């Protein structure tokens, strides 16, 4: 496609999405659930063909020399597809919030005032790598009564096309407009420029990917953006804490999977727990090949761990999102220093405290300025599916409209409704 054709094509997607959004907004809950259940069924039935499409993307990625953590993000393993199907079923089983009226109050004038939850309308989703995002975005769009235009990364184009075709098949089965979920079929970046500059058709843009992508979209978009830039998540081991539990959770938070944005990249340890905890977690990380970039005090405590990969931390390490088997390690005085460090260096995504002190836990929850804050749990739980949202469109580190995993409610808005019986204002 040349530039003119791309502009016309993207404009056409916007027109179709806007028309479909009006039909989706009034679709009954039962019909939307029918589409979601059909999509779950199709994902299971078409697992083999989907993996064939995915294999072409994986082969291209490896030929292009894409780093293995990035290749890992591309994989549509049967387990990934099953999680997508379960997410669709979970969404179908959830109550429908669209049209729900809350906070209705009688005013002195006689009118009653409340708020109704309504779909946003049309959202554009721009994402990299993970093709399962196609299903997460589509299923949430259906449940929330929106239309969406999806633009996945060029590295996953075959997988995304195959998944989007199943979504449109499911919509058609349920009697909903196929244009309610459209995938941008070109990998030309010019299409992104047009998509983020169509306020007449697109109500919000949700970028999900690397920092460069999100910074570009935030800078150039002419429509509102729900974003998160990166995931420098912290696990803080408090004094007092259950050391065995802390080892188990800190291990999972880092090594369960290295590539997601909710993996812990920084480990903070209270000085009172460090001598007991650090050699034990160090042995676990050493056995799994995790490099530890530590402050002088932590390196001294880790020095005796056989096979440990130890590197002195630089200032940059405290802010780094590695997405790899590397973790920064710092010994802190205690809770105050931990909170101050997190609020300075974290990306405000997800941060956890491991403690047996109730007061410390409560302070951490109140004072750490992040979208998800956890007590005695792995940061890897920061996920829409794990939170019971059915799926997520992304994790927002913004403070307005949507924060944390963005599920159905994050894709809706509230409008005021006023009920009267002929009242006039005096």
Structure overview:
The chain is of the alpha/beta class and 426 residues long. Helices cover 43% and strands 19% of the residues. The protein is built from 14 helices and 16 strands. The chain has helices at residues 3-25, 29-45, 47-63, 68-74, 78-93, 132-143, 157-173, 190-195, 211-220, 243-255, 271-287, 296-302, 335-345, 358-367; strands at residues 101-106, 112-119, 122-127, 147-151, 181-183, 204-208, 233-237, 264-270, 291-294, 309-312, 326-332, 350-354, 372-375, 395-396, 404-405, 412-419. Helix 3 runs antiparallel to helix 7, helix 5 (78-93) packs parallel to helix 6 (132-143) and helix 10 crosses helix 11. It is globular.
Which characteristics define this entry?
single chain; 426 residues; alpha/beta; 4-stranded parallel β-sheet; 14 helices; globular
Q: What does the secondary structure layout of this molecule look like, with pairings?
A:
Layout: H1 3-25, H2 29-45, H3 47-63, H4 68-74, H5 78-93, E1 101-106, E2 112-119, E3 122-127, H6 132-143, E4 147-151, H7 157-173, E5 181-183, H8 190-195, E6 204-208, H9 211-220, E7 233-237, H10 243-255, E8 264-270, H11 271-287, E9 291-294, H12 296-302, E10 309-312, E11 326-332, H13 335-345, E12 350-354, H14 358-367, E13 372-375, E14 395-396, E15 404-405, E16 412-419
Parallel strand pairs: 3-4, 3-6, 4-5, 7-8, 7-12, 8-11, 9-10, 9-11, 12-13
Antiparallel strand pairs: 1-2, 2-16, 14-15
Helix pairs in contact: 2-5, 2-7, 3-7, 5-6, 6-7, 10-11
